[in-house]
Each structure stands twice: as structure tokens, then as C-alpha cells.
Amino acid sequence: MSDLEREISDARIEISADSISMSISELTNLYREGVLEIRPEFQRLYRWSQEQKSRLVESVLLGIPLPSLFVSQAETGKWELVDGLQRVSTLLELQGVLRATGGIKLPALTLSGTKFLPHLDGMSWTGADGNRLTEAQKLDIRLARLDLRVIKRSSDPKTKFDLFQRLNSFGSTLEPQEIRSAMIAGTNSEALAWLNRLAANEFFVDCLGLTERLTDEQFDVELVLRFLMLHDRSLDGMRAALADFSTKLDDWAVDLAANYPEGSDQLEDVFVETFTSLAANGGDRIFRKWDAARGRFRGSFLNTSFEVIALGVGYHIANGLPHRTDYLDAARELWLLPNMNTRFATGLATQDRFAKTIPIGRKLMADPPVQITAADLP
Length: 378
Description:
Elements: H1 3-14, E1 17-23, H2 24-32, E2 36-37, H3 40-43, H4 50-61, E3 69-73, E4 79-83, H5 85-94, H6 135-143, E5 145-151, H7 157-167, H8 176-187, H9 189-199, H10 202-208, H11 212-216, H12 219-230, H13 238-241, H14 245-259, H15 264-280, E6 289-291, E7 296-298, H16 303-318, H17 327-336, H18 343-346, H19 350-364
Parallel strand pairs: 2-4, 3-5
Antiparallel strand pairs: 1-5, 3-4, 6-7
């Protein structure tokens, strides 16, 4: 057997799955009985518009087959939804059985008109006469069949959530961190709750000054993970080690969740001390760009400033080394370095940026600062 054939054979063994055809009615009953579970961490990703939901119902009524759903069988035997959140949640909401976080039932979905069924507009499962689907239409929906792939509990846990990532990477509107959070939740929901708590730390929030959109997309949680992963990382071979960074961060985050709470207290101590100090000595100006011509910080949050200053401070705190706390002065010095306003502005690959920003941060934030040479610069 060739090496490639052996790899294919080994990987196929890691995922064991059954194919099942099931009616929407049967799937709904499994949800009502608690056999089919939608994790609360996944529910925040349910964000289809009314038009998207209505088009799904249109497809069911017209007999158009829907893509397969994927569920993972937990050790208890229950099913956890892995892929198909938008579709399943829409079908449950249509019937008025979808529960929000906390167990409160959402009202039945009110539909809007669609391309082929404009008279769906204003219709619902439980509306008043004239605005309610007929019993025949409801039955058509309830009896419509869905294809499910059930990933058995004998499958490797990390492989199951690698599958989740792949399924949600093709044509998905989810942001990378939203997918990553779902993977973390599936590995250890307590780890995700811990990360969310760090992201809500008042000093961290004050320092970032992120827009509501970025927070909704969980960019704050991604920055927490970046800090935890990178602040004390070895500089040896960093560029190669961090190539395809998003995938590397996925793998690191899932490993963190799998081993949680191991090491979490130490990581949290460094995180809290770092951002408490940053907030007290500059706040969100630290992570903005210094405009020397105007004599002020301007713009919004910048990854470059975060990687240099926050990771630089975190490194020194983690290793018990003295560090400077005149952060605004350090931020000004950063943007006055040669090439900072040109090379970084044109955009470096993530791993190339890290290979420059992280070493610069460790030198710049030392007390006293270490001289930054031409070789350090982009």
C-alpha cells in the first residue's frame, strides 16, 4: 500500500457516518424531545434574513431538494447539529417551536413573498384566517424529506469539528472566528465561555474600541485567541510556523479547548494584567495610528499596533521581565520607525507581518527599550 493510500484509509476510519432520510416532522419531534440539540453557542450564528428564510420554505413547498444536513452523535446518543443551522432553525421557527437561548420559544415565522410564490407574503404557521398556511400546505412541509449524515460517536472528536470547519467554509457567510467558536464549543463549551469572558473584560474592551459589526463577528474573541497563542511564542521559525495562520489558529484553539482548564489560569493572569495596564496608560489610542503631521492618533483599531504593543507587553509580563508603561510614547515611536507607514500599509501576508511585528514589540516594549535595527523593519 502506498503512503497516500495509507493516509486515505486512516482518515476514512476516523469518521464513521450513517446516511438517513427523515421527514421534517420527524426531525421536529426529535428537537422537541431534546434528542436533536442546537448548542446555545451555535444559536447566535442563526442570522438568515426573512427573505432567505422564505426562500427556503418556497423550496420545500415546490419540492426542491435541500442539501444534506450533518449531525454529530454525542456520547449520550443525542444528536448535535454540525451543519445546517440556518435551514433547521428556519424550519423550526416556521412551525413556532424554535427555542432561543434560555428555552424561550420564538414566535412562528412570518413569511415574505418570493419569486415563484409572491402570495407567501404575510403567511405564517399560526396566523389569522387568510394569513395562515392551509393544513394541506403544512402537511406538505411536514412530510417533505431531508437527507442527514449522522457522524457516529465513535468518530474522532477533532476530526468531527474539522469536518464542521470544511462544511462551513464553502460559500458560507460566517466569519472565520464564528466557525472557530463553534468548533471550540463542540470540543469544550466551558472553554468558549472562558474566552467570551476574557473578550468582555472591561479593560480589553476599552483598549480595542471595536465597532459593533466587528464585535458581532466575534473579532474580539479572535484577538483574545491571537494574544494567548502568540504573546510568548518562540521566534524561531515563526514565519514558516504561522503560514496559513487561520488554520493554525483553528488547530491551536481546538487544542486549547480540548485541554481546558489546563494552563488557563496562567494565561488569564497575563491577559488581565496586560490589558489592565494598557487601559490605565493610554486606552484605545494605543492601537491607532500616530499621525505626526497632525500631532494626534487617528483612525480605528490596527492589527499592527496590537501585535507590537499588546503582544510585546504580554511577553514581558509572562516572563517576569521589566517593561515600559509609557505606551502612548511607544506607539508614537512605532509609527515613526522607517517603512512603518509604507511597507505595512501595502499589506504583508499574515505570517510575514507577525515575523516583523512580534520581535519589534519585544524590543520596543522592553525597559529600557532594545535598539531596533534595519533588519527588524519591514
